[in-house]
Amino acid sequence: MNKIYVVGIGPGAYEEMTGAAVQALEASDVIIGYTVYVDLVKEHFSEKEFLTTPMKKEVDRCVLAFEEAMKGKTVSMICSGDAGVYGMAGLMYEVGVNYPEAELVIVPGVTAATGGAAVLGAPLIHDFCLISLSDLLTPWEKIQARLLGASQADFVICLYNPSSRKRHDYLMKACDLMMQYKSPETVCGIVSNIAREGQASRIMTLKELRDTQVDMFTTVFIGNSQTKEINGKMVTPRGYRDV
Amino acid sequence: MNKIYVVGIGPGAYEEMTGAAVQALEASDVIIGYTVYVDLVKEHFSEKEFLTTPMKKEVDRCVLAFEEAMKGKTVSMICSGDAGVYGMAGLMYEVGVNYPEAELVIVPGVTAATGGAAVLGAPLIHDFCLISLSDLLTPWEKIQARLLGASQADFVICLYNPSSRKRHDYLMKACDLMMQYKSPETVCGIVSNIAREGQASRIMTLKELRDTQVDMFTTVFIGNSQTKEINGKMVTPRGYRDV
Considering the entire predicted model, what is its pTM? Predict the structure, then answer.
């Protein structure tokens, strides 16, 4: 059976892909992914076969990748950002138990946390946490405990999936929890459509973030107690002692 | 004044750089960095001017970048991994206060957390924290509080700077703290020299990790309560419900 590459294509722009990711797609016969991500790379690999499955059909997508590889094709499964951060790499190993002869190669990429950080300035210079606000597969109590624990220990926090139609008030709830330990004046930032058309960013306080509406294409950053705004950029120092 | 690019070159191999990072270095007259990182890219950009400063001279390195840009040169400051994760991006903004006409462009890259995760399998699929064990600029009490808080909230934890000559027992101390909340059987992994010559990785339990010697080129991963070993790979599921 041929190799299956699980490839993080970065936040969006072709230029944000690594050389290794480009090589993996070039070496593949078929490229599989969620429709939106396939559309991001299609024009650069127009001679390839593309297969898509809709959102929430992730297990089907994995099975499809293994079945295509069984036919003797070299396969790339693509994810936005990094395939190993809220991406498909884990599920590919889980589904792969049924395909013991398959060899998976994970190709890392720039995840939304670091891609978005570069737009805002340098918010993630020191210890930070990534927390997804989606409670589809995680109980809200667990998410709540993480928001509180991370705030109490003064981590910079980066939120993935901050909102959806069903969860329109989750960011507000999360801000209220974080404000139990973080100052309402904490420097925060939001970035939407990172490295894609319509990229937009804004810096604000945690108090202001609480009352801000964001969409599912937005990544949210909450500073630590040292994070500051420097000329419109969000910057976290390297430590707690003067440089 | 010309642009200054602050560029994450990824974990090591040239192929791990993004297209945007390659473009930034190609557009530059001078490339500045710590000696080890300059050596990683030098052969691919041999016609460029290279300037290096030793470790712990980070402020000098930033000043050098701005001074070179003042001469009319286009400058790239390079960092391993991502420039915004324990990298130079933050300090460049801080030092840049003295050079208001300078325009900084941060070019994100693959950080050791996601680069190392790809080697181990898929440990970072769900909420995770990055914690540096270096207490050079951060009080140990703060690091301790983060290790405890992150363990209690069942985060996957990725440790940067797990060891040095002066801090040979810090990983052991950190494991003892994490075991206050995490099972000694928690699946862990270590990766050294990610995407470089001599890359090596190992999967073990938290109890075993406690008694393992690592060096400063090692990145350490501690799973959450759901993380498992699948055919020699470290895999964290997407959530807490069955897929």
Answer: 0.96
